[in-house]
Amino acid sequence: MGIRVKARYENKVLKPLEGLDLKEGEDVEIVIAGSLAKDFRGALKLENAELIEEIAESNELL
Fold first, then answer.
1. Which end of the chain is more exposed for a tag (fewer CB within 10 A), N or C?
2. Domain boundaries, the chain
3. What is the pLDDT of residues 16-53, one digit of tens each?
4. Model-level pTM?
5. Euclidean distance between CA atoms 6 and 34, whole angstroms
């Protein structure tokens, strides 16, 4: 089981927006999801952007 954390990309580095309980040098796997709502708006035929965002960021898709 993993954790889900938002991060910001600045100066070519991903910076977590909250603390992480990791050991120095620990390897992790990163999945870049971003904001997918705009990519699916026409394909899903939904007008509610908040619903689309919720579906796009759902753990069910990972």
1. N
2. 7-61
3. 999 998 899 999 888 877 665 566 555 656 566 677 67
4. 0.47
5. 9
